[in-house]
Amino acid sequence: MTQTLPAKNNQKLQLSPLNIPNRLLLGPGPSNAHPDVLKAMNTAPVGHLDPAFLTLMDEIQSLLRYVWQTENQLTIAVSGTGSAAMEATIANAVEPGDVVLVGVIGYFGNRLVDMAGRYGADVRTITKPWGQVFSLDELKTAIETHRPRIVALVHAETSTGARQPLEGVGELCREHDSLLLVDSVTSMGGVPLYLDEWGVDLAYSCSQKGLGCPPGASPFTMSPRAIEKLQNRQTKVANWYLDMNLLSKYWGKERTYHHTAPINLYYALRESLRLLAEEGIENSWERHQNNAEYLWQGLEDLGMTLHVEKQYRLPTLTTVRIPEGLDGKAIAREMLLEDNLEVGGGLGELGGKVWRIGLMGYNSRKENVDKLLEVLKKKIK
Ligand code: PLP
């Protein structure tokens, strides 16, 4: 029999029950979850192979296809945050030696570069100053020069607030036998996006932004062209957890156990997608655009300057320049601690230069814009 030893108690904290402040999350994400989503999340878990749960998985798949405007059969939620779904696209699509062309317009483009390199890709990059986007001509030239197997673009660059137009890129990719991979973490649900119409072959997103859900269950999809590449691989997918050969058997007809799904997160995701379908995706896009324009006008009325040219601005994430002479980081901290209102600071090249204001999902509401403008007005005068 194992001898019992006296337990060490030096890490044994004596805590009171959880008490987290109630914040309005108007930063780059997470955004506040819809109250109905939190309620759904509070439902008692069932088993991950329970028929009731399998039905819920089917519903999630269908609603993800609706929100993304795709008929891709392989459309699932990855158990993990947006980065896990991002890594899933790279892990499944990239084989060592593949040329992967990444359009870098900010921080998350660089993350794609890092990930693709880790999976053995021959990574080529094109870059733009942070806040700008590529024209179709620039992408055409790059595709003709590099002849990539995969072209990876960030639709909504959260670090800069810029929206990369995607119209026409899918056709270019087809002409050159490339797959088009798109990051839609900050666009899904809030920015018009038509995966099939635009010829996107691989896409991923997250739950905690435009879908108004807590983080942890992340949309992922693969077109038949991308599946064909997966099926013709010479090497195994170098990531067991994210291998779609295995995961598709859990989400598909076989229902083979792969991992224990985070049941309650999927409850939450299902409710957030249900609410989005009830509103209608076009209405959601319109709501995000209207509230963003209301914000932009309010910021300009305060004498502030927006970082991105209007036609490329994201409705979900706005970058506004910090007025000369102000300590942006200190003000954001004050807003958080005194006003319970979170905004983000600049990342990378834009560190210390901009605040990042998110109006995503449930948080994209006029009253939130009014609250933010009222607080900001006091801080910058
Ligand atoms: N891609 C973009 C554009 C993002 O904004 C983020 C997160 O903000 C990610 C990827 C990574 O997602 P997560 O933080 O959920 O892992």
TrEMBL record:
Residues recorded as bearing N6-(pyridoxal phosphate)lysine in the entry: K209
Xref: InterPro entries: Aminotrans_V_dom, Aminotrans_V_PyrdxlP_BS, PyrdxlP-dep_Trfase, PyrdxlP-dep_Trfase_major, PyrdxlP-dep_Trfase_small, SP_NH2Trfase/AEP_transaminase
Pfam (any one): Aminotran_5
Domain Aminotransferase class V: 46-370
UniProt cofactor(s): pyridoxal 5'-phosphate
Molecular function terms from GO: alanine-glyoxylate transaminase activity; L-serine-pyruvate transaminase activity
Origin: domain of life: Bacteria
Keyword Transferase attributed: yes
Residues that hold substrate according to the record: R356
GO biological process entries: glycine biosynthetic process, by transamination of glyoxylate
Keywords, ordered alphabetically: Aminotransferase, Pyridoxal phosphate, Transferase
Record CDD domains: AGAT_like (cd06451)
Family label: Belongs to the class-V pyridoxal-phosphate-dependent aminotransferase family.
Annotated protein name in UniProt: Alanine--glyoxylate aminotransferase
Organism: Calothrix parasitica NIES-267
